[in-house]
Amino acid sequence: MHLCVFCGSNPGRLPVYREAAVALGTALAESGVGLVYGGASVGLMGAVADAALAAGGEVIGVIPQSLADKELAHKGLTEQHVTQSMHERKALMAELSDGFIALPGGAGTLEEVFEVWTWAQLGFHKKGCGLLNIAGYYDQLVGFLDHVAGEQFMKTAHRDMLIVETDPNRMIERMQTYEAPVVTKWIGRGEN
Prior knowledge:
There is one protein chain. The chain is α/β, with parallel strands linked by helices. It has a single domain (2-176), classed as 3-Layer(aba) Sandwich (Rossmann fold). Helix content is 44%, strand content 17%. It is built from eight helices and seven strands. A seven-stranded parallel β-sheet has the order 4-3-2-1-5-6-7, sandwiched between helices. Strand 2, helix 2 (43-54) and strand 3 form a beta-alpha-beta unit.
């Protein structure tokens, strides 16, 4: 199994974010789960990759040429794929992965996890998608998503597809046992 981790290319304000990235990378390796991530050596991306490598794990990076040219590419990975665009990067990361976890990050992290979660809602894949909610980082987002479901712009079953955990080991366990629900996409058609 390979799990894709989306996360910040910055370390964030709180040391606990980096600590969580290290814990997740270590837990993946110790669970025998390969890491797929954005291929950079900086921020939480570098921390999760370095931790997985240090624990003997397999780490596959996928980075666009434009970022590799800025010397952001990690040099010590098991595999490093260089793509021509961000679209190719995301497609390859999705193809190589059996599930997706978002650590804290910015707009890019949110865009990546929302895209794969939307694909799951549409039935394009049956892979788990989750937020590793460190120090309450995603609390307000989770509250908003509950509001979206309450306002019937999303089915509750689709909202529930997004796994939210605070513990890296529990997140990995849930990814390993994830089974996609069978539900129609549109509210007002079939179950709600």
